[in-house]
Amino acid sequence: MNTTTSFSYPQTLYTNNHVAGVTAPAPAFAVNDHLERLKKSQHILEKYPDRVPLIIKPSANDRDAFPIDKSKYITPRDLTLLQLQQIIRKRIHFPAEKALYMFINNKLFPITSMVGPIYDEHKDADGFLYITYCQESTFGDSINQA
In Å, what is the CA distance from 112 to each residue of 102, 124, 145? Predict the structure, then answer.
């Protein structure tokens, strides 16, 4: 039987229920998802040692987020963030007049940085590097211009 694993957004893994100051343990399915992702990332790294596994998602704080059709990527270690940004722009059909910001662990990195060293330093415990993106208009709103 062929089963396909679907990974949910990472915040579902780390969300704890808070009731009257008491932290409830993570649900069992969250632990299983983490183990599945860990196995998947290890498999990817063994099969493609010159590549890194990424999970890319829109920022939860971006109310006008453009959804991405594919969130899991395996990229070369020497891919720059600029090249990755171009890939994301194409996948989400992002307008040219808007700036796209990519965050890794809530930090901005220079656009010339390579994915490999960032992965080595900032990968999650499950072996994936989580990247969030958000937008900001840089040239004004074309609808309100006269």
Answer: 12, 22, 34
In this predicted structure, the answer to whether residue 112 has a pLDDT above a threshold of 90 is yes
Note the pTM of the prediction, 2 decimals: 0.70
User: Among the ranges 5-14, 53-62, 109-118, 126-135, which has the highest mean pLDDT value?
Assistant: 109-118
Buried-exposed string 96-131: b where 16+ CB fall within 10 A, e elsewhere? eeeebebebeeeebeeeebbbebbeeebbebbbbbb
**8 Å CB contact between 98 and 138:** yes
| Alpha carbon distance 135, 107 (integer Å) | 15
Q: Per-residue pLDDT tens for 113-127? A: 999 999 999 999 999
71 secondary structure, DSSP code: -
Q: 140, exposed or middle or buried, with CB in 10 Å at 0-12, 13-18, 19+?
A: exposed
User: Looking at the 3D structure of the chain, how many domains does it have?
Assistant: 1
Residue 90's domain comprises 50-137
Domain harbouring 127, CATH code? 3.10.20.90
